[in-house]
Amino acid sequence: MSFAHPWLLLLAPIPFVLALLWRRQRGSLTVPSLQLWDNTSLGRARYLWVLPTCRVVALTLLIIAMARPQAGSTQSIQVSEGIAIQLLVDVSSSMSMSMQMTDGKNRSRMEVAKVLVEKFIAGDGDELHGREGDLLGLITFARYADTRSPLTFGHDALLELVRDLEIQERPNEDGTGYGDALAVAAARLKQLDDPEIRQMRSLEGEVASRVIILLTDGENNSGQHMPVEAAGLAKEWGCRVYSISLGEHPQEFSGQALESPQLSEAERVLEHICIETGGVFRTAFDYDSLLAVYAEIDQLERSRIATRDFAQIAEWFWLPLASSLLLLFTAFLVEATWLRAVP
């Protein structure tokens, strides 16, 4: 229990002081002797003390009500400003080319990509911290872009989809159409502004950042949208694009994400997309360099968690106020009827 104006409680003794002054100053009649009334009953006069007592208590309660007693509690909640991330993975036939693992063994680019995308989502307990609390979606592309998973908080189901990814082996569907994939991803992120979509995705807070992570090993040669056109849509809709180009030849690597000074024409396009949208372009040639790129992106795009304190306060001034008014009304009523005194 607390008071909004506790200094008013200093006035609490005033009703008692006024009662004492009133008692000393009230009128009296001087008589020579009280023997005539020795055997006379006091009757209702014995209750006359009730009236001043009620007034003192009522005024005291009125002062307490003016001090505004309050009862409440302070609570803290963590509000996460989430990130929506669209993961774009190339599944064209060129992803069957081999990449070197940490142990020196070779595995296909597709297998390495699946391992690292899975670690990016769930975390590896070391360099990658996982994307818990973020909204994630998965789009694969060869000649055509396919939405494998809409934006979701259900990362367990998303991980199963990542593990089941396979290279597109049909010749008529092979190719690299990441321009279409970028356009689809940007449109999916733009839909987060739609109230119906937000309700469907159970979105309560603000989406602090909209990110597209594009992993490819070739140049765009299919689809209806040119990469630069798709980048324009992403920029207009507030999406940052991070592009990762899988190269064939290792270059100097210092343990950090690679920035190659000599880029191919296809890589220049990817770099332009990233610069245009505020993202980052990196190249990778083996497991370790690709891990470094995903670790860099993981650090750049983190959810911001803020703690907000709020207090729930219940006003209780009405209780002493109501009691005070009730006592004053009762005292007035009794004084005018049952304990009415002749001046």
TrEMBL record:
Which PROSITE patterns does this UniProt record tie to the protein? VWFA (PS50234)
Q: Can the keyword Transmembrane be found in this entry's annotation? A: yes
Q: Where are the transmembrane segments?
A: 316-339
Which keywords appear in this protein's UniProt record, sorted alphabetically? Cell membrane, Membrane, Transmembrane, Transmembrane helix
Residue intervals of the VWFA domain: 84-300
Q: Where does this protein come from, organism-wise?
A: Novipirellula herctigrandis
Protein name according to UniProt = von Willebrand factor type A domain protein
InterPro entries tied to this protein = Aerotolerance_reg_N, UPF0353/GerABKA_families, VWF_A, vWFA_dom_sf
- Upper taxonomic lineage: Bacteria, Pseudomonadati, Planctomycetota, Planctomycetia, Pirellulales
Give the source's domain of life in one word.
Bacteria
